[in-house]
Amino acid sequence: MIGLYTAAGVRAAEDAVLATVREGALMQRAATGLATICLQLLGRAHGVRVVLLVGAGHNGGDALYAGAHLAARGARVTAVLLAPERAHAGGLAALRRAGGRTADPGHPGLDRADLVLDGIVGIGGSGGLREPAAALVAEAVAGPGLLVAVDVPSGVAADTGEVPGAVFPAQHTVTFGAVKTGLVVGAGRQAAGTVHLVDIGLGEALGTPDARQLTDADVAVHLDAPDPGDDKYSRGVVGVLAGSATYPGAGVLCTGAALRARPGLVRYAGTAAEGVRAAWPEAIVTSGRPADAGRVQAWVAGPGMGLDDDARSVLAEVLATDLPVVVDADGLTLVAGRPELVRDRAAPTVLTPHDREFARVFGGEVGPDRVAAARRGAAALGCTVLLKGDATVVADAVGEAYVNGTGTSWLATAGTGDVLAGILGALLAAGLPAVEAAAVAAHVHGRAGQLAAERGPLIAGDLVRVLPDAVGRLRRGGAA
To answer: How far is the C-alpha of 63 from the C-alpha of 197, rounded, in Å?
Structure first.
């Protein structure tokens, strides 16, 4: 599991460690790791043209010391000093001793660079890039050089991923000590590119992370094969209330995903019964109400079920039970009108909104801090919130949070949310706590999307078809 930390959390850990090591040790560890990764990305050092964009403070110092390492290996390193009077003195001296040179912002040489290191501002930065930094970054983007950010891309809020203005759009970010939350969520995720973590020895000083990100190994634990003594009832029975005469596909997709995930049995109830029965003879199907479906251990309610009085009545019936419930799509719109249906529950409830649905249910926009928004919504209704997006965020009412690290932009197509809801319902029926089930479901859904997208544009049905392969790859320890 990957811990995600705020800038304040990282600084506190650094201060604790700095009290026990020689002065400058952490910066040297960071710079050495940064230079090592840059060498790996470049494949060689001799003759390579490197441009450092250097601001004031420690972030610029990291870039300068890394540039000194590269220059000592034969790279042709130029440091563009954005604040010469405040450049890190030790780093600047080390660069010059290694044969590096400095340049003013008017003659940066970015049009000939093989690598551009962004050391403009670090985790303490706020707001978009100002001039002349913004113009230099635009020039770097237009040039041929590989774009690598030092710790966080300049212009990205380290805690939230907010990008309020001009930003350094890194292809790679080399971050130190711990992964900052803003590198994996919101617009910051795109600006960071591939994130590389350098261990600088913060260890236990880091304390409790702000949020977490699951790895394939974390997820595989929850995708175990049946034991010899298992039967169809012991593996979890999930009930699906999805689809309608108008939108039968939602019922088909949600039921199929639940079947393909991991439960022993899926029961369907609703007005799309005929289509679900034809598509999935393995499911037990009724066209009646939830009580007619038989005994289940969790419900999925909402996808394509409509907004009429019957849909309202069915949702209220399910939310009145003492079973875990996933509420998705149309169900969220119905909850927006009667939030007490969720707020008054003792049993686990998972709401799965995208941004517009979030605004309807919780009465306010998500805003730039997606983790805080998910926590705020979860606390307001005493539930778990799975906030969909490029990096899906999961949070529960006590503040535990996960940021999903899998997926593909190809998942932005109709019906993929129905598939996610089915996977989530199956995991809840198997007994996972709501926040863990939601985080695992998002990870599996993302891996399935990546696998389906290998063939090009995907549709939601592709996710259902590749789910067994995606789960199998995760169980074998490989990325899907």
So the answer is: 16
